[in-house]
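Quick entry between incubations.
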Amino acid sequence: MQNADAIVVGGGPAGSTCAWKLRREGLDVLVLDRAQFPRHKLCAGWVTPESMANLELVEDDYPLSFMSFDKLHLHYKVLTARPATRQHSIRRFEFDDFLLRRSGATVIQHKVIDIRRAGSDFIIDNRYRCKYLVGAGGTACPVYRRLFEERNPRNHALQTATYEQEFAYQWDNGECHLWFFDDGLPGYAWYVPKANGYLNIGLGGMAEKLKRRGGRVQDYWRGFVSRLEHHGLLRVHDLHPTGYSYYLRGRSDLVADSNAFLVGDAAGLATHDLCEGIGPAVQSGLLAADAIVSGRDYSLSTVTKLSGNSIVSKILQRAFAGE
Ligand SMILES: Cc1cc2nc3c(=O)[nH]c(=O)nc-3n(C[C@H](O)[C@H](O)[C@H](O)COP(=O)(O)OP(=O)(O)OC[C@H]3O[C@@H](n4cnc5c(N)ncnc54)[C@H](O)[C@@H]3O)c2cc1C
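Done. Structure below.
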């Protein structure tokens, strides 16, 4: 049996941030992830300055693909707004690996299946034992399923469906574009250039709304790609997008049970306006680590619920997550 003070299930931004903070406080931390890092993660890779600050990452010191945008291009039908802002793009393939290495935790590739309590400890798959257990395994997190799902079931009205691809591409247009509600999509489409010749394009929408309309997010892909081609933003045809689903923040924040904690997508924390998940993942990882170290309650009350604070954010919130 391998022992650790804390075991973190999942090495994405939520898990690696929690592990990093716990290691800094001197705890012995083991991260179990079913994937070998660096691993592919479906994500547009938009990162906010707030997340960079929470991760104590200075732009110039991040050694991998990193781009900044001083404005966004927000498209709705024939209208385009270009609000001034400062946002960033990273490649999750690199970013997550960087954060996990930086955490200083021991990382083992292992798919967690069984979790049981033994007194005040947890035993995982009869191989790993810990006092503190952090569920950071994303939407299908086994800690969520085993310890939280029954009392805090997912609200399917808050489930997203996404379809996207990131690929090597010499883009000409180095700006970030978002198209809202195109062809009736209950969500938005994105074009996010990455440094070092990569591009991420994709679509996301609310799964139940799509289902009620008798459609799937995939149905919007062809029209989206045509639009990109029409605007001269894309010249390739051989694309193979894939999908993933995650949850926006629900009403219930049941995310701690004695020494077990949920962080990031495992807790379903994405924002209601732009479906941002990295920021809440990082914030919740820090808060869970703080609760473990200090013995204080783990509360998500300070975790971002909306990415923006404008009237547009409120409109998007109603359009996406209005139940
Ligand atoms: C298409 C798409 C685009 C997105 N774009 C953005 C964006 O641009 N900006 C943004 O802020 N958010 C975006 N998001 C949301 C964001 O990607 C997530 O909210 C974020 O990755 C959550 O981080 P996490 O650490 O909680 O989970 P993850 O990053 O999903 O990490 C979970 C980890 O758990 C591991 N795991 C799962 N099950 C097990 C198991 N049984 N045993 C061991 N390990 C396990 C997985 O291998 C994985 O490494 C997007 C999501 C999608 C799907």
